[in-house]
Amino acid sequence: MSTHELKSLARLYGIQSAYTDCFHRRRQASPEALLLALRALGAPIEGVKDVPSALRHRRRELASRLLEPVLVAWEGRPPRWGLRLPSALSKSRARCRLILETGETRNWRQDLSDVPASGASGAGAERRVVKTLSCPAALPPGYHRLRLEIGGKNHEALILCAPPKAYPPPNQEPRKAWGVFMPLYAMHSAESWGGGDFSDLETLIGKVAELGGSATATLPILSAFLDEPFEPSPYAPVSRLFWNEFYVSVSRIPELRLCPSARAMLNSRAFKRETQELRRSPRLDYRRQAALKRKVLFELSKTFFARAGERHGEFRRFVAANPRVEDYARFRAAMELRRSPWQQWPAPSRDGRLRDGDFVPENMRYHLYAQWLAHRQLQAVSARARALKHGLYLDLPLGVHPQGYDVWREREIFAPGISGGAPPDPFFTRGQKWGFPPFHPERLRESGYRYCRAYLRNHLKFARFLRIDHVMGLHRLFWVPDALKPADGVYVRYPAEEMYALLSLESHRHRACIIGENLGTVPACVNAAMKRRRIQRMYVLQYQLAPDARKALGGIEPDSVASINTHDMPPFAAFWRGLDIRDRLELGLLDSPGAALENRNRRSLKSALTRFLKLKDRLHGGARRTGGVLKACLHYLSESPARLLLVNLEDLWLEEKPQNVPGTGWERPNWMRKARYALEDLCPRVRKALHRIDISRN
Q1: β pairing state of 128-134 and 117-121
Q2: Domain total of the chain
Q3: Which range of residues forms the domain containing residue 224?
Q4: Would you say residue 179 has pLDDT above 90?
Q5: Strands (E), 609-673
Q6: What is the 3-state secondary structure (H, E, C) of 423-444?
Q7: How far is the C-alpha of 551 from the C-alpha of 564, rounded, in Å?
Q8: Does position 12 have pLDDT exceeding 80, yes or no?
Q9: 116 and 222 in one domain?
């Protein structure tokens, strides 16, 4: 086996054998990393001795693939597709059948001898002739099926016919849009039980809309493990198809007036004492609050299922419209019964077949009821926002929890033994391993993107704006085999055009704007593709800062969402005072020389920013007051051509504690810190700052 053969095999599976890192150095993948990634992709390989035979197998496999499983047709153009035909069939006739998403069919015959060859490969009995066919006419947008009968065999492909560009951002002319950001868990009010709920989200939307804002953004609000296992991170959900009942507002549930046991629970001294303690705590106690809410929701669930009522028809329509929800409820109930990850369950439940006895029926009905409540309340929040000409801005996480429902039910489209991650960079010098399994590119295509369509629709039926986490993952993703360290991973390519077609089609169907998180070391081709497909980019001031006073903030493109920072960055006040550097030093993420270098670089950036703002006539007087510099930065962003400006509410009261410190686990209370102010107490300073932004955006 030669190194050349191993790299050739990797290339045929979409694995990059080398990449250029953020320091502009060329990094070669190790043979071990390539072999492990190849095995996860299904290559028939155990060790290096198998490479030559695996290479021959892969070449035959690709050559014998007569038709690709997925084809893209940008709207207005007749779809075209290539056929890799055995020589014996190159002059045969093809029966073509196109089944539109509407059910309409189109049939025609094609004499392949009339189609000139556009290429050839192989020799002898394995010789293949490549011919390009096309539809007789353009297709409407949608998911269509192409069926070909050639030589007595049937072949099928999914055609993604999509608008060439995603749905445009809301037209605010002559205004430019602005909105606010706050995690829903961090919101709190006199009515909520400690952390925020859907009523709090609706309250904030009303306050922001009243001030002229067009969007309210939050972190993922998907279903989560809040007992055993316990994982509060919004970026490790149980599922991207279902919502977190932690955010259900109990006071809005109609069954409450019909359930004496639940009302008695809410009125008890013990309950009131516990909710008071939860409200007073500066940190969110997920376990305690989730357990408390479950007790009440469980009683309401029993009442709902015990008696027929007018809401039962609505419930049955919800279940019919969401066929996976019963399966999800069974999974959650089974996990609660076994108290172990599904990977440790006995067959057949481990393999996706749950039967009576694998779960407690009452618990299954609880999860079904809780999902219905979450769906209805989020639907009400979205409707209220739209009535105010306001947009809910949701966040789609890159991955899901490996022990969660999606991986259990859709395991064939996830790569086994692999974690998504990132290569080393200046902040994470040892690389990152995120702990969730990445998509298997070929299995995803073979499934017709069924799962991707489902999770996009789940979000877009409520969101006017949808942020795609780590948008580079549409093109390539860093795979870290379980047996290796994060720095030893490899990049694997994905079918980007097909992914963009999905986003474009679904965004138009739901009239929603798509935003791609393109921060970090992102190849130029990614930003170019986003621009071509009208995916809005992100401009983050703290990330874009440069030490040159004339170009400290660079240009801000119109097709972007501008902000001071993100949830993974320190608040502006902490950034300005260098508190994040001190924190990283305490955590051991930096050594003393590294911290000293970071502090020197930070001083240089701060000096460049203040001089830049003075040159732009945005900052007057000294630059020592953090609030004054923040105000000038917001003024600059407000007057920029960015389609949307998102303001982190916590910056406006100069919060110094972050919501998340990347690279840490239980060392820091990530995803647990409440906002300093309750929604009723948002200070005049906040309202005044947002009023100034509204004026600047006119």
Answers
A1: antiparallel
A2: 4
A3: 175-397
A4: yes
A5: 644-648
A6: CCCCCCCCCEECCCCCECHHHH
A7: 17
A8: yes
A9: no
